[in-house]
Write a structure and sequence with these properties.
With 209 residues, the protein is of the alpha+beta class. It has helices at residues 12-24, 43-48, 68-76, 86-116, 120-123, 125-146, 159-168, 182-193, and strands spanning 3-7, 29-32, 56-59, 63-66. 51% of the residues lie in helices and 8% in strands. The longest helix has 31 residues, at 86-116.
C-alpha cells in the first residue's frame, strides 16, 4: 500500500496521523503544506479536499481520505489501536467524537490562533475567554476519566488517546495550565512512553521509489 500524507508540520490534526503511522511502522511520503502561504487554497489542493484543510491522505496513488479521525480509523483497522470488541470500540469512538466536538474546538482552536498564527490572539480576542472556559471543561472531563483508567477508553492505548494527545500535550502553547490535572499529566507521560512514540517534530525517512 502506497501512502502520501499532505500535512502541516505543526498542525495537531496532522501530527496525530504521523504519530499513528510511526507507531505502526508504516512507510509514507510526506508532502509539506504551508497553511500561511496559502497552499490549502490552490486549485490542486482544493481538488483533493474542497474544504481546504489538512491532513489529506492519498492511498495507492488515487483514493483521497480527509478528516483526521477518519484517517486514523482507516490506518488503525486490524491493529492494536482499534479494539475488536464491539463495546470497547464504541467507548473508543465516544472519545474520538469528544475530541472533534469538544476538545479540538477549544484547545485546538486556541493553540492554532494563539501559537501558530502571527497576531492570532488579537484577531480572535473575542473568542479567547470561550476557548479557555470550554477547554477547561474538556480537560476536566478527561481528568475524571483518567482518574479511573490509564487510557481514555480503558486499560490499553487506542486511537482516541492518539487523537487527544496531539493537542493536550501542547496545551501550554494555548495558555492552558495543566497543573491541576494530575491524571491528565500522568496520561501524557504514559502515551509518550509507549514504544514507537515520536514527537511533533518527527519526520519519516523519505520513501524511495
Amino acid at each position: 500500500m502506497s501512502l502520501v500524507l499532505h500535512a502541516a508540520q505543526r498542525s495537531a490534526n496532522c501530527y496525530k496521523v504521523r504519530l499513528l503511522l510511526a507507531h505502526l511502522g508504516m512507510p509514507f511520503d510526506l508532502r509539506d503544506v504551508d497553511i500561511l502561504r496559502g497552499d490549502t487554497r490552490t486549485p490542486d489542493f482544493l481538488a483533493m479536499n474542497p474544504r481546504g484543510r489538512v491532513p489529506v491522505l492519498q492511498v495507492d496513488g488515487g483514493t483521497v481520505l480527509i478528516e483526521s479521525n477518519a484517517i486514523l480509523m482507516y490506518l488503525g483497522e486490524g491493529t492494536r489501536f482499534l479494539p475488536e470488541d464491539k463495546l470497547c470500540r464504541a467507548m473508543m469512538m465516544q472519545w474520538l467524537f469528544f475530541e472533534q466536538n469538544s476538545h479540538h474546538p477549544s484547545l485546538g482552536e486556541a493553540r492554532f490562533w494563539m501559537a501558530l498564527i502571527p497576531g492570532g490572539r488579537e484577531l480572535k480576542r473575542d473568542l479567547v475567554d470561550d476557548w479557555m472556559e470550554k477547554g477547561e471543561e474538556a480537560l476536566s472531563r478527561m481528568e475524571t476519566q483518567l482518574a479511573r483508567s490509564p487510557f481514555v477508553a480503558g486499560d490499553r492505548m487506542t486511537l482516541a488517546d492518539i487523537a487527544l494527545y496531539a493537542n493536550t500535550h501542547l496545551a501550554h502553547e494555548a495558555e492552558f495550565d495543566l497543573t491541576p490535572f494530575s491524571a491528565v499529566r500522568g496520561w501524557i507521560d504514559r502515551v509518550a512512553a509507549e514504544p514507537g512514540h515520536v514527537g511533533m517534530d518527527w519526520r519519516p525517512v523519505p520513501v524511495v521509489a
